[in-house]
Amino acid sequence: MDRRTLIAGNWKMNKTPAETESYIKSFMKLLHNDSRIEVLLLPPFTGLERAGKLLSETTIALGGQDLHFETGGAFTGEISSEMLKACGCSYVLVGHSERRALFEEGDRLINRKLHAALAAGLHPILCVGETLEEHRQGQVEERITSQLGADLAQIKAAEASLVVIAYEPIWAIGTGETATPMGAQGTIHVIREWIAAAYDQNVAETMRILYGGSVKPENAASLLHQPDIDGALVGGASLFPDSFAQIVAASH
Ligand code: PEP
Question: Would you say domain 5-250 falls under CATH 3.20.20.70?
């Protein structure tokens, strides 16, 4: 089954709207169009509108880093699916490990956000991953399948195919440590088998599952050429147009 590679750049809390514009202009010059690869930028909320205008005539997709589960109302500091869509977003990150660890987001909240994203027609990128402690104690499978079960609760097969999963071992995010290609492939294969059992073989074969955690131009090809790894969620190395373009090129 052919799954379109997705290379997503999560800028986290970096770049003003002006910096967003200069990044996109430089990045566009470095990117070689290839219809088998989808490129996605995830700027902070304040950069979305400008990014959306610049990307509207391109094949590069735009996404938000988070959303609220309600469509509007008295939720100070939050952003809704409708606001993301109005800026041109088609994707949204849900349950990034920094949201889970630093902002105490639990699986119940993440599940509500997933439902909200799907109801709005956005593709959620659901992030799952184990801590270093869980990794050392051999609890990777247990941790990840428990997150998947809780986060995807009440999501039907037709909607599940729209979800992208990002396997991001927490010990590898922003640390320079990367899972080995075999290790990442093994866990992502377990995720695909779990999806097949929870839904069906068709959902498992169509769902894109990404790896994230210190992906760089030097290690991208070996990770991206694994059979079950359908792309990458890139943090630090996506902040520079040249290194992000090199990661995209490595997935060819
Ligand atoms: C991330 O933010 O999802 C991420 C994987 O970050 P980094 O590439 O910097 O480890």
Answer: yes
Paired tokens of 120: 């709005």
Could you tell me if the CB of 174 is within 6 A of ligand 1?
yes
Domain ranges of the chain: 5-250
The residue whose CB lies within 8 Å of the most ligand 1 atoms, and thus the one to mutate among 215, 219, 246, is: 215
Place of tokens 């090809």: 221
Alpha-carbon distance values, 246 to 27, 206, 228, 232 (Å): 10, 26, 21, 13
Q: What is the Å distance from ligand 1's center to 6 Cα?
A: 15
pTM for the whole structure: 0.97
Determine the distance from the C-alpha atom of residue 98 to the mean position of all C-alpha atoms in its chain, rounded to a whole number.
Answer: 13
| 2-32 pLDDT tens trace | 899 999 999 999 999 999 999 999 999 999 8
96 is catalytic: yes
Answer yes or no: is the C-beta of 220 below 6 A from any ligand 1 atom: no
Q: Which residues make beta-bridge pairs with 5?
A: 37
What atom in ligand 1 is closest to the CA of residue 212?
5
Residue 1, pLDDT above cutoff 90: no
